[in-house]
């Protein structure tokens, strides 16, 4: 093991720097050699939950000075961390699981340290979102990470409506007590035809991956109470091309007028010249309008 850890030694680790270290999202073995090396080297570890982190570090045979730096004290914790960094110490930051700053505290601490003119060094590692996307498949070409949706129904629907036309896939985090409600809202607002990957308990004993259309997702979750337990990442297909390329009412009006005087192709060309909208999209829409007529 020490020979392997030596691989991480081949780099300069500046003093007076904050090391933002990703930790496992379930399986303790998912820690990088560099994370172990740095956690072993730093003078203190700032952590979202010092008890959890003490337990995690003990599993790697590490005992460290721990500083609490969670959502509610991130600013005051930052001052303490900055004082240590100014004294030339190396400090690591770890959240409860995965990559700090990703639906987790850490971002404010990073900002405060950098604004103080001090160095921040990222140590990459597990994140539930990336782990789920890696097994989603080719239908996820690009994605937008959303994290947790609002817990109140009306706010959740409004947040989803704002995302409904987005052509890229969407990645959500969800807790077990809201999973059915949230998947129901995804179906209602984004449309029943889109694909969803329900990634549960990644890297853990009861890991499961289920892909289906949103229309079937709630029934699948409700068919077995175990399917609603644990931690979830939801990867949802983006808006189909028609919805994302929807033409504005003004463009629609110009196209309809052009179609009254010209054949399909000419109408699309004229409407594109007047509005600046895509000629192809206008031609497709013109064909559809002719069909409707
Ligand atoms: N910072 C973490 C990361 O990089 O993924 C995320 C922390 S966030 C507070 C916790 C949420 O991440 C959970 O509610 C769940 O949605 C998701 N999550 C974390 N671990 C997971 C796992 N092993 N399987 C599925 N989802 C997970």
TrEMBL record:
Tetrapyrrole methylase domain location: 18-216
Protein name: Ribosomal RNA small subunit methyltransferase I
EC class (word): transferase
UniProt-annotated location(s): Cytoplasm
Gene: rsmI
Species assigned in the record: Pandoraea thiooxydans
Source superkingdom: Bacteria
Catalysed reactions, semicolon-separated: cytidine(1402) in 16S rRNA + S-adenosyl-L-methionine = 2'-O-methylcytidine(1402) in 16S rRNA + S-adenosyl-L-homocysteine + H(+)
Record flagged with keyword Transferase: yes
Summary of the function given for this chain in its UniProt record: Catalyzes the 2'-O-methylation of the ribose of cytidine 1402 (C1402) in 16S rRNA.
The protein's Enzyme Commission number: 2.1.1.198
RsmI HTH domain boundaries: 245-290
Stated family: Belongs to the methyltransferase superfamily. RsmI family.
InterPro entries (UniProt xref): 4pyrrol_Mease, 4pyrrol_Methylase_sf, 4pyrrole_Mease_sub1, 4pyrrole_Mease_sub2, rRNA_ssu_MeTfrase_I, RsmI_HTH, SAM_MeTrfase_RsmI_CS
Keywords, ordered alphabetically: Cytoplasm, Methyltransferase, rRNA processing, S-adenosyl-L-methionine, Transferase
